[in-house]
């Protein structure tokens, strides 16, 4: 029977100092016998796919507490590929995946967390957290911020649905007037969420479902849809259940390397082809498979 990892820091006379520090974060005596769940949030005001995640992290944390766990939230960085594109900023995008992977690993292992909820969304954030989850191999649930709504604009008397790429294409077209380009720019990204379209972010958030590490709807429910909130709440409940199954029932089938096995990776690749997803997913899936 595996012992709760967190008891390394919460049990024993020699951990009086660690417990004192835990108490300063709000923990009480009874909390030292509960699973400590790390909540890796990627909230940032730089990225539309992540601007709403601050509140979502608190939803997850409260649900973890209700289910009998102790939630400890921390943040990772998040780069917006769309904003970074077209200049030297893009040099930092793919390397940020590794920083995210390492930061999740460091926070979880340094503090001996028992399980992990990954709140991700955009292009390199979900892959970075996926690498970390398979590296750590402790119970994990992914829940993303969801895709933004598509833009809508009236052009030549017709309603046109558009996304970020449409605005980029319009700007690059010398035959488009400045006025029409401005209309497209203002309408392409109307809400929070990852860019609407089967780009890397939405593709990877669908593939975490195929890998078995996120709940149904993780990759497709809109960021603004009421059911997206339900996913966050369920993630909080589920991670406590998975932690108890592993540490109290010795159920290794709940571990990410058991769930996201070879067949699951094949399934994820098949799904990406079937839904016409991003080819970048192959880059990220191969990196994740190396961790498992």
How would you summarize what this structure contains?
By secondary structure, this protein is of the alpha/beta class. The protein is built from 13 helices and six strands.
Kindly give the count of domains.
2
Strand content range: 5-15%
The 3D shape can be described as elongated
Structural class: alpha/beta
Low-confidence stretches: none
**What CATH architecture label of the largest domain applies?**
3-Layer(aba) Sandwich
Number of strands: 6
CATH topology of the largest domain: Rossmann fold
Describe the protein in words.
With 292 residues, this protein is of the alpha/beta class. The protein folds into 2 domains: 7-147 and 193-291, 3-Layer(aba) Sandwich (Rossmann fold), CATH 3.40.50.2300; 150-190, no CATH class. Helix content is 50%, strand content 11%. The chain has helices at 7-10, 16-24, 53-66, 81-84, 93-110, 125-136, 164-172, 178-187, 200-210, 226-249, 256-259, 262-275, 280-291, and strands spanning 36-41, 70-75, 115-120, 140-144, 151-155, 158-162. The protein has a 4-stranded parallel beta sheet, with helices on both faces. A hairpin with a 2-residue loop joins strand 5 (151-155) and strand 6. The longest helix has 24 residues, at 226-249. The protein is elongated, with a radius of gyration of 20 Å.
Topology:
Blueprint: H1 7-10, H2 16-24, E1 36-41, H3 53-66, E2 70-75, H4 81-84, H5 93-110, E3 115-120, H6 125-136, E4 140-144, E5 151-155, E6 158-162, H7 164-172, H8 178-187, H9 200-210, H10 226-249, H11 256-259, H12 262-275, H13 280-291
Parallel strand pairs: 1-2, 1-3, 3-4
Antiparallel strand pairs: 5-6
